[in-house]
Amino acid sequence: MIVFKYIFWLLYRIWFYVLVTIPIIVLFPFLLISILKESWYPYFFKLARVWARFILIGMGFKTSIEREQTTNIGESYMFTANHTSMIDIMLMLVVVKNPFVFVGKAELAKIPLLGFFYKRTSILVDRSSPKSRQAVFLRAQKRLKQGLSICIFPEGMVPEEHVELAEFKDGAFRLAINHQIPIVPLTFVDNKKRFSYTFFSGSPGNMRVKMHRFIDTKGLKVEDTKALNEKTRTVILKELNGQSLK
């Protein structure tokens, strides 16, 4: 029985990478055209949402979303969520309809095929380089002026399996304060159980997401960054703790 479980997990992981690759190949000409101009990014975003939904359905994941507040099309937001899985990116794309740009680690640009588009559409950051971190603010400012939103997983790196929620980095909150845009906290409840970074693990099933009430940043200053950080983290952690007790 244990042997069959490991065979299933192996095939399940391989199937995930197949699902990631197939729509990119099929949609490649359209994806390529959509990144030729920055002003065409919303079209790329729509294609990315199709790609993400294809993967979630193919993996046998059913998405259940609870929204305490809804976003308005045309407004900019800072989307933040706990980071637990490779599936986080796909789930974020499915849950959020407002075109947004990911801020993520530069290493992901090395992934074959996927990295090609990631590098050209996301804001890459090398966390070991102060110069790179500073460049993030300039690129984010440009994107926000274009009417887009930003998405950051504020834990930075995916925490170890036993860590429910790592400490948040300040970057997302400093950006939100600088541009006076609301923080939208999201809790991904089941991602770690469904498809964690542990290779031999995972299974199809329900993936619950909670979009919490937005946290306003109007009137806040840079010195309020840490308090905003802690407030956002508390919202997500309380939801994770509440779910773990059920």
How many runs of DSSP E, i.e. beta strands? 7
Estimated share of beta-strand residues: 15-25%
- Write down the overall geometry: globular
Structural class: alpha/beta
**Uncertain runs:** none
Helical residue percent band: 40-55%
Strand order of the largest sheet: 1-7-6-2-5-3-4
Distance between the termini: 29 Å
Structural write-up:
- This protein is an alpha/beta fold and 246 residues long.
- It has a single domain (2-244), classed as Glycerol-3-phosphate (1)-acyltransferase, CATH 3.40.1130.
- Helices cover 48% and strands 15% of the residues.
- It is built from eight helices and seven strands; from the N terminus they run ααββαβαβαβαβαβα.
- It has helices at residues 2-34, 41-58, 88-95, 114-121, 130-145, 171-179, 191-195, 225-244, and strands spanning 61-67, 78-81, 100-105, 123-125, 149-152, 183-188, 205-211.
- It has a seven-stranded mixed beta sheet, with helices on both faces.
- β3 (100-105), α4 (114-121) and β4 form a beta-alpha-beta unit.
- α6 packs across α8.
- The chain is globular.
- The model has no long low-confidence stretch (mean pLDDT 91).
